[in-house]
Design brief:
- This protein is an alpha/beta fold.
- The chain contains 11 helices and 10 strands.
- The chain has helices at residues 46-49, 56-68, 87-94, 127-130, 147-160, 162-169, 198-203, 207-211, 233-237, 260-271, 294-302; strands at 21-28, 72-76, 80-86, 99-102, 113-116, 133-138, 220-225, 242-246, 276-281, 308-311.
- 29% of the residues are buried.
Length: 324
């Protein structure tokens, strides 16, 4: 499995932006109110969230009305639903005009651009829909950590941690393998790193728990990510077992064109090697714009009755003026 490199065509999924299909999230009005979670004027507490669970009959009416306008339901949770539609259907229903907008960090995004209403676009929803819904908003592609940023950080770490680098170089060389085939043993690298799974378990204080025979057995963990290439020899060598399901629009349970989900799942196995692992794949390597949104992934994960849902997400808190 190669590391994802946005500049390497052999590891980068093709990003066709010619598709006009939109992935949209639906939120409903609070029972007895004309607003829902996206228009609530304060930060929600855990006690408040449950009061926004919509009346099921009203939610059904809203989804039926959207379906009548050509929208297709792909997932549903307690507070929201996911649907897909065409550009024409969205523009007609909300009397707006969409513009193709470049996704931030497009080379590392799930796909490079998205149709979205610009700030000055008109917005006049059909009254029949306005009274039933809190909001209908287009889902942006998720953005993966770019390799360039990781490489710069690794170089800085290597420069400041010479003693760790020396120790890393002394690690045993990986076992010889046939050229071009992946190995269960990672290569030597000239910078500080944690060896999976032992170092991860040790640093997170899971090793003493493992020694007591507690490995996560009986716990169902769902992870939402790019994909899970669990045919890689590393997973077989450690005896890890998993089941992989596809969120709406995702394809091929065996592949992970990005590598992010495969790496994140190794962290889960390092801490809870005996857990029941359910990987929810989001990506479609052949047609990235058709892959699942994070919301569709969450709604798929909930179908499998997990006790834990793992989603590795970050957020850039800097303002546009401070970003480089």
């Amino acid at each position: 499995m190669k590391a994802y490199d946005p500049h390497d065509a052999t590891t980068r999924p093709s990003r066709s932006d010619t598709g006009e299909e939109l992935r949209v999230a639906i939120t409903f009005n609070r029972p007895g109110q004309d607003f829902g979670p996206t228009r609530f004027g304060a930060r929600m507490s855990t006690d408040t969230v449950s009061s926004f669970i919509p009346d099921p009959a009203q939610a059904d009416l809203a989804l039926a009305e959207l379906a009548r306008r050509g929208f297709t339901l792909t997932g549903r949770g307690s507070l929201s639903a996911s649907m897909r539609c065409t550009r024409e259907q969205f523009e007609a229903l909300f009397q707006t005009k969409l513009k193709r907008m470049k996704a931030p960090c497009a080379s590392a995004a799930q796909f490079g651009s998205v149709l979205y209403p610009p700030d000055n676009a008109p917005w006049n929803p059909d009254p029949a829909i306005r009274s039933l819904l809190d909001d209908v908003y287009i889902q942006w592609p998720h953005i993966y950590m770019a390799r360039a940023a990781r490489a710069a950080k690794a170089a800085k770490s290597a420069k400041s941690k010479k003693t760790s680098t020396t120790a890393a170089k002394k690690r045993a060389a990986p076992k010889p393998r046939e050229a071009g085939t992946p190995s269960a043993t990672p290569p030597n690298v000239p910078y500080f790193h944690l060896a999976a799974p032992a170092d991860i378990a040790l640093k997170l204080n899971a090793t003493p728990v493992h020694q007591q025979g507690i490995t996560g057995k009986g716990v169902r963990i769902a992870m939402i990510d790019s994909g899970f290439a669990h045919g890689h020899p590393y997973f077989k060598a450690h005896g890890y077992a998993s089941s992989i399901v596809l969120a709406p629009g995702a394809t091929d349970r065996r592949t992970d064109g990005n590598g992010h989900g495969t790496g994140e799942s190794a962290n889960i196995f390092a801490i809870a090697p005996g857990a029941t692992f359910i990987g929810v794949k989001l990506d479609n390597e052949a047609n990235p714009s058709s892959g699942a949104s994070v919301l569709e992934g969450l709604q798929e994960a909930l179908k499998h009755d997990p006790q834990v849902i793992s989603v590795s997400l970050g957020y850039d808190l800097r303002g546009p003026a401070t970003r480089r």
